[in-house]
Structure formats: C-alpha cells, structure tokens
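We were asked to recover a plausible sequence for a given structure. The inputs and outputs are reproduced exactly as logged, with field labels preserved.

PROBLEM: sequence recovery
POSITIONS: 131
GIVEN STRUCTURE:
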C-alpha cells in the first residue's frame, strides 16, 4: 500500500496554493470541486504522492465545520489500494468503522472511501483505488 496523498484543510485555496508552490516548489496537477460537499481542492505533486489542499465554498460545508472546530491543518491521509471493495471488506472484517460503506467517486474521478478516524488512532483515512 502506498501513500496517495495528504489532505490539508485551508481557509483560502489560492493563498495556500501560493504558499505551497513558492515555499515548497510544488506544482498544481489537478483542481476539482464538489458542490454537494461544498468544497474546492487542488492537488500538488510532491515526489510519489500529492498534497490535497481543501477549502470550503460555503458555511455549511463539512470543511467549514472542521475549520470552526480545529482551524486549518492536517485533515486526512489517503492510501492507494488496487481494489477498493476488497480493501473496504477487509477493513470491515477487522472491525474498523467505515464512513463510506460503498466506494464513491472522488475528486480525481476514481473510487474512494473513508474510514472513521476513531478506528485508525484518530487519523481520518481515505482509500483510493488505483487499479
Ligand atoms: Co483526499
């Protein structure tokens, strides 16, 4: 299993992109949004993995709630798996609590699913299928 990306919640996406590209020399590879979730995101390349910068587009977004509760910062780790249904079934069989019982299509257009942080030592964990 490889690290796919690190999710970071930010208050202003363009400010965060400017920081990561200028200070760390990263390059934006992909931008996406999900109006239903009220988020916009940018993926930046760093070696074999990416940083996913996530900002809210409205006040009732789950990311707005995260910002209100904890402020900007680390949000989730995402691991690449070859078969997400198999990985979810395995996690469930080990007693982990799944946020997404069924995979859904993520911002990269591939199946993703989240595992509850309380099952992973406080770390919100995303699985990303890269078959
Ligand atoms: Co993610």
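RECOVERED SEQUENCE:
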């Amino acid at each position: 299993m490889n690290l796919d990306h690190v999710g970071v919640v930010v208050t202003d996406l363009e400010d965060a992109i400017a920081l990561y590209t200028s200070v760390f020399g990263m390059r934006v590879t992909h931008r996406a949004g999900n109006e239903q979730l009220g988020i916009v995101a940018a993926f930046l390349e760093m070696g074999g993995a990416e940083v996913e910068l996530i900002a809210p587009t409205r006040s009732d977004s789950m990311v707005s709630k995260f910002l209100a509760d904890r402020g900007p910062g680390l949000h989730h780790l995402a691991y690449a798996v070859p078969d997400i249904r198999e990985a979810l079934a395995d996690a469930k069989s080990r007693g982990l609590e799944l946020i997404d019982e069924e995979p859904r299509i993520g911002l990269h257009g591939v199946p993703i699913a989240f595992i509850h942080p309380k099952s992973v030592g406080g770390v919100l964990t995303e699985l990303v299928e890269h078959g």
